[in-house]
Amino acid sequence: MRYKAGIIGTGGIAGMGILGMHDVEDIGNKKIDASHAGGYDSTEEIELVAVADVDEEKLATFGEAWDIPTSQRYVGHEAMLANEDLDVVSVCTPSYLHYEHTIDAARSAANPDVIWCEKPIASQVSEAEEMVEVCEQTDTELVINHSFRFTDKLQRLHDLIHEENILGDVKSVSTQYRMELMRNSTHVLDTLVYLLDARAEQVSGHITGENEAIDSLGAAEEVVDAGGGGHVVMDDGSFVTVDCTIPREISSMTLNFIGTEGKLYMNNDDGVWKYWSLEDGEHVERPLPGIDGAWTWENDYKRSFANAAIHIQDILNGEDVNYSPGIKAVRSLEIIVGFYLSHYTDSSVDIPLPQPLREIPITSW
User: Which residues contact 248 (CB under 8 A, 6 or more apart)?
Assistant: First the structure.
């Protein structure tokens, strides 16, 4: 062991299972490898040494599952940050707490070199931007866990689009994913801005007001997160439609790109990726060079946490550059906030948002 890690928040994504992703009987009762703790456990040089939570029962359950000594199980993140010397801190609390916990960690005596924060980055754009700014001031690398970025296939696809120009100039993209916008759809929107390497310029949105997870999560705080979507004009000129209105059970994460040199269809739930090259005016189906098969939840998502932790290990060793930085995570949050503002003002919204609109919170978990 060379580096020490601590986790703030001992819920599902930290290491105890996620609703809809793991067996119901396992959630909260046993350790889950597809998690922050599981990611650290897969590395050679990072050891999880401390955890913090305000819920003492969850803290004890997590500590027992992941063999954390009782002396290093802290009630409240302040105590952990004051008493531990940490190289990396995971922020695995609800998204409306990411701002407080990331800022506190960056400025703390624990002095971490990396903060690995769950998605979405924050509840409001101003907070996300301040998180980025404070981490820059404290020389802390802010890594956001948009987990698809940590899969080999998506990284290779990004290179094919930008280095080998398989799509040419992307003109149109359509996307679909399950509700809710903050809790779930941040994944598809981050995948969008990652593959386009673009930022929204104008947003027109629709909010359904529906949330299928309120009862099942038993959330203690009232949230406004809901299904929705709309149209987005990106700064690269592409036109994007987003539909994140339907329940998990009947949804598929799909993205369909149409460019001047080819088109690409991605359905991650069904494990189908197809690419057609435009040749002499005809679309000809071709394999994606360097990608064996399609991205799937079973083979790629579950590995993403280990990949992310290994990436953090490489950052700590000075061997890699952060490829999921906070400044990029702001781009998906801007789109979501834009959808809400557009819906409730019955108008289109320009990005970047002016200062008063940066303060609008979209609360989730």
Answer: 20, 178, 179, 184, 212
Comparing 98 with 295, the larger pLDDT belongs to: 98
Pairing assessment for the beta strands 349-350 and 200-207 based on DSSP bridges: antiparallel
Question: How long a stretch of residues is the chain?
Answer: 365
Q: How many CA atoms lie within 13 A of 11 on its CB side?
A: 16
β-pairing, 88-91 vs 73-75, is unpaired
pTM: 0.95
Are the beta carbons of 30 and 61 closer than 8 angstroms?
Answer: no
pLDDT tens digits, 166-222: 999 999 999 999 999 999 999 999 999 999 999 999 999 999 999 987 766 655 567
Torsion of CA 25, 30, 33, 36, to 10 degrees: 110
Q: Are 231 and 203 in contact (CB under 8 A)?
A: yes
Please tell me the number of Cα atoms within 13 Å of 359 on its side-chain side. Answer: 2
With beta carbons less than 8 A apart as the criterion, state whether 146 and 213 touch.
no
In this predicted structure, what is the pLDDT of residue 16?
85
Strand partners, 228: 207, 244
**Cβ–Cβ < 8 Å for 248, 212:** yes
- What tens digit of pLDDT does each residue of 310-345 get? 999 999 999 999 999 999 999 999 999 999 999 999
